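[step 3/7] inverse_fold.run input=structure_tokens len=122
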């Protein structure tokens, strides 16, 4: 993916700002309720800032796609040595199945073209 630019980036920034404003407002509202004795509101006092932090994280990921993939080296996943033989056998079996399927498809196509192979074509 490419980086967000122009109107798409502007909309993303605006969405983040609105989300953070909502989180801040909800935080102050729940803090007031918690201080007045509502015990459940203490959970929300901590939840809204965490939601705001998550929103900032997602905003960053949207603006910088693929940043994590640049750090990783592409390549084959490591296979334990005791399973390499099993992998090779499985791959050979898959190739045999594909060859059998291709042969069956060719036979079926040949039968569609000439349904009676004993018939003489003069």
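[step 3/7] decode complete -> sequence:
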């Amino acid at each position: 993916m490419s980086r967000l630019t122009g109107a798409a980036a502007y909309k993303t920034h605006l969405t983040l700002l609105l989300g953070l404003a909502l989180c801040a407002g909800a935080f102050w509202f729940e803090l007031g309720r918690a201080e007045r004795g509502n015990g459940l509101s203490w959970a929300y006092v901590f939840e809204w800032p965490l939601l705001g932090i998550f929103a900032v994280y997602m905003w960053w990921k949207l603006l910088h796609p693929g940043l994590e993939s640049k750090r990783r080296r592409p390549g084959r996943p490591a296979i334990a040595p005791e399973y390499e033989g099993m992998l090779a056998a499985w791959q050979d079996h898959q190739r045999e199945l594909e060859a059998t399927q291709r042969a069956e498809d060719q036979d079926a196509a040949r039968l569609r073209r000439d349904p009676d192979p004993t018939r003489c074509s003069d």
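[step 4/7] annotate
DSSP finds four helices and no strands in the chain.
The two ends are 61 Å apart (CA to CA).
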